[in-house]
Amino acid sequence: MVQYTIWRLLIFAVFLLGLLWLGVHEIWALIFAALFSMVTSFFLLARPREEMARQLEEKVARRRAEREQKLAGQRTDEDDEDAEAEGWDQGDR
């Protein structure tokens, strides 16, 4: 994920420095460098972007599974407590 971000910034910096070196006004250089780097990154960084998306998807799935396990464990404890409470109420009568 960090590698993808570094590549994106590097591509932007190369375009920005190139445009500034050519004498383009700073604001236009920023705008064009952003546009050119977006298009270039879309094609050149497709594989790293897909890998980053896959890693994020796996991370979200893992967290979701952990949360579901935790909730399932909490439900079991609560169900046991409810059963105990009901048993005591019936035994007291």
UniProtKB/TrEMBL annotation:
Write the record's keywords in alphabetical order, separated by commas: Membrane, Transmembrane, Transmembrane helix
User: Where are the compositionally biased (Acidic residues) regions?
Assistant: 77-93
Residues crossing the lipid bilayer are 5-22, 28-46
Start and end residues of each stretch annotated as Disordered: 65-93
Q: What single Pfam family name could you report for this chain, choosing any that match? A: DUF4229
Stated name of the protein: Uncharacterized protein DUF4229
Name its species.
Ornithinicoccus hortensis
